[in-house]
Task: inverse folding
């Protein structure tokens, strides 16, 4: 076996075999989780068992498990082992996420229920947030986003008519409000604020959850050339969703 390995080595860069092997371990574990063979809370084979199963080094196995943990697929407990993580999709805070694409990339079904599209008078807090006059007309949409038929986000959005005059003329059953804005209104600034809150009875009804359970509320504002475009409040059941980011020491996000 060592001789065969030595003959293959010159055919590729020195690090290529290791990359391929750790990726094989990751894909094997991810596939077991995806097809339901290993469910949330199940203990994974130990590092030693994976070393023997794949005939690779402990370092390679450790890298595969470490990256799966960073992606939220598994949980590692020192001295105990690795376990399948509870399913809780994560959305980034460092970019404007396209929720439909995120869900479909996970191989899940996406749906959007448009509950309201209207023009309303801006109350005090909204007027201040969008740099408008009190009572000035503002566009409003209310949507529920679902993953595999389960509500994961209630989107309550307000849009400046000055910046997006044709907003209400769109067919939001075909393209969701956030996707339309990202495609058609370039923004150069975004602000994100996250709070832990309890839903109102109506919000709990729309999200099909217990009103006593906490939610994560992401409030986002965007600007184009210094002028506010939209403010949206995205309410997520904390048991079904999480918000997070990974970034370098220089403050730049890590993508991919």
Result:
């Amino acid at each position: 076996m060592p001789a065969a390995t030595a003959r293959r080595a010159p055919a590729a860069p020195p690090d290529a075999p290791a990359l391929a092997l750790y990726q094989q371990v990751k894909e094997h574990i991810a596939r077991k989780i995806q097809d339901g063979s290993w469910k949330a809370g199940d203990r994974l084979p130990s590092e030693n068992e994976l070393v023997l199963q794949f005939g690779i080094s402990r370092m390679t196995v450790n890298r595969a498990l470490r990256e799966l943990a960073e992606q939220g697929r598994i949980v590692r407990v020192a001295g105990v082992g690795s376990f399948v993580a509870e399913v809780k999709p994560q959305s980034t805070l460092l970019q404007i996420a396209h929720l439909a694409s995120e869900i479909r990339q996970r191989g899940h079904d996406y749906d959007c229920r448009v509950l309201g599209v209207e023009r309303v008078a801006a109350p005090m807090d909204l007027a201040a947030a969008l740099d408008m006059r009190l009572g000035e007309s503002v566009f409003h949409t209310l949507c529920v986003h679902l993953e595999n038929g389960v509500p994961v986000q209630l989107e309550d959005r307000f849009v400046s008519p000055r910046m997006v005059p044709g907003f209400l003329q769109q067919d939001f059953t075909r393209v969701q409000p956030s996707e339309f804005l990202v495609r058609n209104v370039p923004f150069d600034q975004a602000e994100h604020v996250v709070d832990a809150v309890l839903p109102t009875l109506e919000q709990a009804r729309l999200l099909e959850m217990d009103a006593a359970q906490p939610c994560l509320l992401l409030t986002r504002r965007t600007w184009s050339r210094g002028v506010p475009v939209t403010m949206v409040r995205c309410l997520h059941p904390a048991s079904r969703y999480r918000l997070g980011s990974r970034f370098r020491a220089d403050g730049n996000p890590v993508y991919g």
Remarks:
- The chain has two domains: 2-84, 90-244.
- Residues 90-244 form a domain with the Chorismate lyase fold (CATH 3.40.1410.10).
